[in-house]
Specification:
CATH topology of the largest domain: Rossmann fold
Shape: elongated
Strand order of the largest sheet: 2-1-3-4-5
Order of helices and strands: EHEHEHEHEHEEEEHEHHEE
CATH architecture of the largest domain: 3-Layer(aba) Sandwich
CATH superfamily of the largest domain: Response regulator
Largest sheet: 5 strands, parallel
Number of helices: 8
Radius of gyration: 20 Å
CATH class of the largest domain: Alpha Beta
Helix content: 40-55%
Distance between the termini: 24 Å
Structural class: alpha/beta
């Protein structure tokens, strides 16, 4: 599956050039030229990386980034901007941006930066052992979780694998087909109902009200999404 990249840039010629070249590199590319649409575009397209211009109309890239953080959307971001002072770079990086590149830039340099950020983020995901949210915790190494009630529970290897898959795709929809393909072999008997049962168990463990879930959501006809 190709990495998804969202470009939020109001300079139309640059936007089109970046999209064309990233398409050619094999990325799934989405674009947005308006600051107000930046947050909603991120929610809709669920990118693996955002190229975010700082100087946007109506709302700045800095403010978009702050809004994403408030929503617990931790998509890697590379800031694009014509600003080139050291202080501007420090400000962007202090916010937690993954990288920063000033215009004009060489396309080859940007591509290398994109590859490095995606690689670092993938490594971070793979090396993460314990995931905490609200008062709950998941230990992917010991297969043990701490429930909403503070109780420790041991889960099966497949349950932990499903949790890991959902956590690694935070706020993104994971299809039933992808889950069945990655967590079950062709020889094993499995169905969407099996996954539904796992999700119901996760809700009992982690949801304040399992009947009105806010973390483990079912997306009708598609799959599941984990949100915090």
């Amino acid at each position: 599956m190709a990495f998804r990249i969202l470009i939020i840039e109001d300079e139309q010629s640059l936007l089109e050039t970046l999209k064309l070249n990233l398409d050619l590199e094999g990325y799934d590319v989405f674009t947005c030229n308006n600051g107000l649409q930046g947050v909603s575009s991120t929610t809709i397209h669920q990118p693996d990386l955002i190229l975010l211009d700082i100087m946007l109309p109506e709302i700045s890239g800095i403010d978009i980034y702050k809004q994403l953080k408030k929503m617990h959307i931790n998509t890697p971001v590379i800031f694009l901007t014509a600003k080139n002072t050291v202080q501007d770079k420090i400000e962007g990086l202090k916010l937690g941006a993954d990288d920063y590149i000033t215009k004009p830039f060489e396309l080859e340099e940007l591509l290398l930066r994109i590859q490095n950020v995606l690689k670092r983020n993938q490594t971070k995901k793979e090396s993460s052992t314990i995931f905490e949210f609200n008062d709950c915790a998941i230990n992917f190494s010991t297969f043990q979780v701490v429930s909403i009630e503070g109780k420790k529970e041991d889960l099966s290897k497949r349950e932990i694998a499903l949790l890991k898959m959902l956590v690694e795709n935070l706020n993104k929809v994971v299809s039933r087909d992808d889950i069945l393909e990655k967590l079950w072999t062709k020889e094993e008997t499995s169905s969407s109902r099996t996954i539904d049962n796992y999700i119901l168990n996760f809700r009992k463990l982690f949801e304040p009200n399992p009947k009105e879930p806010i973390h483990f959501l079912s997306i009708r006809g598609v799959g599941y999404k984990f949100c915090v």
